[in-house]
Amino acid sequence: MPRPYVLLSAAVSLDGCLDDTGPARLLLSGPEDFAQVDAVRADSDAILVGAGTLRSDRPRLLVNSARRRAERVAAGRPAYPLKVAVSGSADLDPGDPFWTTGGERLLYTTDEGARLARTR
């Protein structure tokens, strides 16, 4: 059985940090990085994100380039990759951009988290 191809994409500082503990979002990327991330997203079938990142960064996880979205559609794919959130509690804001922008979304959670998610 063929295995899925999985790519981890993360911005890391020179001293090896992914984030700090402050309340403000730590930006480690520049314009060139954002363009590369957009290309990776355009080539992806799905994007996986954890609840902590959803709460702290409120990402949209879109393919920003209209050309790349058009290429996806021309290839028979949706304009945006599937967005997948992982949360044990499902205590997530349904108004966050992750849920309100872009294409299809999926939540992986516990049985109790699923009960909470259905009420929102």
Task: Describe it.
The protein is globular, with a radius of gyration of 16 Å. The chain is built from five helices and three strands; from the N terminus they run H-E-H-H-E-H-E-H. The model has no long low-confidence stretch (mean pLDDT 89). It has 120 residues and is α/β, with parallel strands linked by helices. Helix content is 34%, strand content 12%. The protein has one domain (31-118): 3-Layer(aba) Sandwich (Dihydrofolate Reductase, subunit A), CATH 3.40.430. The chain has helices at residues 31-43, 51-57, 66-74, 97-100, 111-118, and strands spanning 46-50, 82-86, 105-108. It has a three-stranded parallel beta sheet with strand order 1-2-3. The longest helix is centred in the first third of the chain and has 13 residues, at 31-43. Strand 2 (82-86), helix 4 and strand 3 form a beta-alpha-beta unit.
